[in-house]
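Dear Dr. H.,

I hope your travels went smoothly. While you were away I took the liberty of generating a structure for the chain from your last submission, since the lab meeting agenda had it listed for discussion. I wanted you to have the full record in hand beforehand rather than looking at slides cold. The sequence, exactly as received, is reproduced here:
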Amino acid sequence: MKLHLIISSLVKKTNCNKLQLRNLLLIGLLLRLILLLISSFHPDIRNHLDWGIRFIDLGPKKFYENIFWGVSWPNQPLGTMLLFAFTAYLKNILFSFIEFLNQTIPIFPSFVIPYLEANLHVWMVKLPFILSDLGIAYLIFKIVSQFKPKHAKLAAILFLFNPVLIYNSTIWGQTDSLINLLALSGIYLTYNKKYFPGIILFLSGFLFKLSLIIYIPIFGLLLLKRITDWKKYIFPILFFIFFIYCLAIPFAFGAKNPFQWLWYMYNNRVLVRQGSMLNGNAFNLWFLLFGLDFSKSEFSDFFNLSYQFWGRLIYILLLIPVTLKFIRSKLNLENLLSTLLIFSFGSFLFLTNMHERYLYPIFPLYLVLIFLNRKLYRLKSFLIISVLHLVNLYNLWFYPDLPLLKQVLIWDNFLIGKILSFIFIIYFAQIYKNYLLNETK
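The corresponding predicted structure, in token form, is as follows:
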């Protein structure tokens, strides 16, 4: 029996009403909250904690110019820093309230105070990304219910309870779920001719991170294909420009205008602090060729051209036929999501300075495509890619501590990672070939 039939048999195939969806989301939330309580610090989250605390101490004008940091320099845009500052501020309020209860109520269990003091901030930082997981699951449910209503619940389940996605948001506490929720919601709303919220949500993602800038060409083509009246997209763009102008005012130290500061911030405080490594622990082409070697820079020469140049050249050459097919094809959901999938998967595999987390965007896309076209997008492949990516997320950080698995992964200059990198490239080649050879609907 095919794998998707085995899993489908475990889920009752009935139309999912709101109560069923609500229960599903509540179970997904409960699972994440339990893991939140029992898991400890992922090593990488200390940045998020430090940035939030320093933002409150320094204020927006001095934040990016500060030279003393507990972990590392801030390398994310102002939206992310405002979010971390808000979570730190909210943690302070909650902890002060708990201390007040402890001091005024004799039966209050005082032994929880040290535990909350050590963990409450971590919980608050992770919570927005846990909620974003639920938001993406809801979006997947809504999308799939439009063409396969009996399978919408299964689609949401496959996302909500995928260990690799839970690890990213709940164990690690990374921002990927939030920026993907904003980008996918914006693209989907724009596709459905809800231009104002769609454009605003899509652009808002770049206030938190720039990793999905790769979607801009397809989003621009989507606007050209979908909108006949230019006023329908000019107004939300102007509104967003005004919004970020106001948002940047508190940060704009000594600048003539907030836009000048925004340009300064992205070019001198965000983009230059991304490490410039050839590979940032992503199982991709560069890992396959060189293993995990942080000493290699993306600006090192190869035939008198930098690795960065070669990576971008490979990526652009691969995208040209995909983009041309998208332009020529009739606009439908399968073509749109397939193109986005190739853009995101290809960037992870061939661009330099890629981190392991940057494969996240393919999972909601691939999951919807499984129910759009099971001949080209197979559930078995989705599950295998999920397992391989989970190994990639664990690689290098080795959290939680599993000594045997760690020894296997680091053996012979991360040979396992090289093998998995090659498997990822094989899967990409299959997706790429199938999309280009598939007849346009």
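Two observations you may find useful: The longest strand covers residues 301-302. Residues 67 and 356 are 28 Å apart (CA to CA).

With kind regards,
E. W.
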